Each structure stands twice: as structure tokens, then as C-alpha cells.
Amino acid sequence: MQKIRHKSYYVRLVLILAGIIFLGIRYASAQIVHYSFDACDGMDEVLIQTDADLQGNITCECGLVGQSASLDGVNDRIVFPSSLKDVFEQDFSLEFYFQLEPSTETIDILSFSTDCSLDSTFTIRYFGNSNEIAVSLSENINDRISAQATLNLDNCWHHILWVKSGLEYSFYLDNQFISTTVAPKGLSIGDNALFGISNSPCLALNEERFTGIIDEFKIYDRPISLLEANNIYLFPGEIQNRDTTIFAGNSVDLVAGTNCAASVSWTPTTDLTVTNDFQTTATPAESTTYTLSTLAQDGCTQTDTVRINVISDEDISCENLLLPTAFTPNGDGLNDLYRISNTFIIETLESFEILDRWGTRVFLTSEVNAGWDGTFNGNPVNPGHYVYKVNYTCRSGEFSKLGGFTVLR
User: Fold this and answer.
1) pLDDT at 47
2) Element (H, E) at 106
3) Which of 106, 201, 289, 295 could be disulfide-bonded to 263 (CB atoms 3.0-4.6 Å)?
4) Helical (H) or strand (E) element with 11
5) What pLDDT, in 10s, does the model give residues 271-327?
6) What is the pTM of this model?
7) Per the omega criterion (within 30 degrees of 0), is the bond before 81 cis?
8) Are 153 and 134 in contact, with CB atoms under 8 Å apart?
């Protein structure tokens, strides 16, 4: 006899399935906080955490995506939910963009503290006397880690990424890897700590409030890899293209990240489709270095360059595909992707695969500019010898190349 199910059974089933879908989406993005500051509010775009509290007289400014929050350095501050404390007990990644008014003082950018001491605190400060950004996490005076880097004042916007993976804490500034520090043990934040921007307990003693702009504040409940960090970076006012080589007569699309510029200009202006936008197409007749100059609405100016080398067909040997003989995926921002060096000779990349010494494929792509970050199934591979196989077309002919290289750590 067929069993008749009650209506409530199907309601529960729908709710369970909806919950599974929700958790799947959340796991895929792993983003648990996103304060965009659009419309000058503190709404969490992910809708998981409590909204941030924008206190004082914070105003809206043009942001990298939508609007941003502008703080005056007097009474303005942003207070984040204290419930985020639990995030810092696990693996996580924190990132945000900012513009900072020049100062010779010690500026409180971000803090998660109970009082002005080294007990259970997380801080990001700017030291005006040395022009350094410093990130510090301490449980007490003995258990403490820190990292610092010089701020490039030629950039209008800056980006901070702080990543925890196990006991390793990695610091990135402006899309550049700075350092990885290993903590002696898991470090925690105090139960009654206040989490916010320009809201440090040390303001009355030796720090000044933040004067500038904050945008796109995000926290993830997992560590972000070097490759992913580059993929999510917005390149504010910077050219996204790397230096490249093309055949004479070919073109390159030049793309830059926006930065609320009041004016944009490319130089030289020859061989460009557009000279006053963040995107243009270059068809240089000879090797040329292009410069992008932007003037932000607040008067900040910024420049960036890209080199396009132009060669003729006679300069190319289709058999001479170039790949490095060694590879150091250690997160230092140098030689962290294994890729084909002279991709310009390739018409179509059929396959580019990398195998370990036992023949296991650890990487496969048909994207000509893609590269391997030295991981397999999300984990770093062991140092040693690896083999590459490349199948490609050049001048309508089919070619293949087989070779080896060494992974160094």
C-alpha cells in the first residue's frame, strides 16, 4: 500500500534543499562579509552578518565599485559587528581598498582591540614618519606576529590583503606579496574587543583617526591563494596587461582598473583607438611603451606603463617555444606562475599540460596566457622534477614540445 505523506513533509524537504543550495553557494564564494559602502551605508551585501555602523558624518564619494565611505579624521569611524571575532579563530582572508591623506602621525586604519595594549589585539596602522603600513596580531607581549611594508605614495588607491592559513599569516599590499609569518600558536582576539576603522582604543594616547576613503571591505572564511588574489584585485588606476610581444600588424587591448579619475590619458597617442578611456586598443608599428596617466577627483595623480614589443614574421621560429627550466611558487610575487614565455608565436593552444614524475597530470589548460601556480587539488606540490607537454599551431602548422623543469621551494 502506497504511503501518503503529509504536506508538512514536503515543506520540510523544500526547506532542506533550499538550505543545501544556500550552503553550497556560500561555500563556493566563502565570502562572509562584504561592506561595499554604496549609498553611504554599512549594509552587508552577503546578508549573513550584522550591518556595519557608520558613525560621525561619513560622506559618500566615488568608489572603485559604486560608492565609497569618506572619513574626515575627526569623529568619523566605522564599527563592524563584534560577532566577526569568531572568524579570526579559523582560516580567513581580509581585504579592503583605501585612500589615505598624507600625514606624519601614526594613523589608526583598522583595529580589533579591547584596550591600548598588546593583549588580544589585531591592528593595521600607518606610520607617517617612516611611510609604512604595519599589520600586527598579538595575544600578549610574548605571542605576537607583525608585518610591514612601505606605502607607494605614487598610487592613489591602496589595497590590503591579510590571509591566515593554519599558523601562517600572509600580508599583501597593492597586489604584491610582502611576507608570510608563522605564529607560535593560534592567536585569538579578546571577547570584548571592538572591531572597526578609525576607532582604536589608542586614539587618546598615540594614534590619530583615519582621514581618507574606504571601499570594498570583504572577509572570507578561507585562505586566498596568490593566483586568486591577483584575479580579484581591481587594479585601481593600473594597467592590467603585462609587457607583451606581438607580430607587426597585430593589436593588443589595453585595460586598466578604474579609480574615479576626472581625466584619463594614454601616451603616446599614436596607434591607439582611444586615448582618454581606461580601455583602448593598440596597434603599434614598432615596439612602444605606453603610459596611462589619471587625475582623480581629489587631485591625486597616478601613472602606469606597459611595453609592447613588435616583431616581424621573419624573426620567429615556430619550433622555439620557450618555457622556464625552474619555478619557485613560494608566494614572493616573483616567478610564482609557470607559463609559456613567448606565447605570441602560438596561433592556437591545443593543450598545455604538466605531469609529475609518476605521470599524474597536475595541470591542464588551453588558454594561451594561463599558468600553473604550483598546486594540485588545492595543495602545494612537492619540490622536484616535472614534465610539460605543449601542443599548438603556429603559421597554420601543428607543433608539439616536451620538456622538463624543476619546482623549487
Assistant:
1) 77
2) strand 106-113
3) 295
4) helix 7-29
5) 999 999 999 999 999 999 999 999 877 778 999 999 999 988 777 789 989 999 988
6) 0.78
7) no
8) no
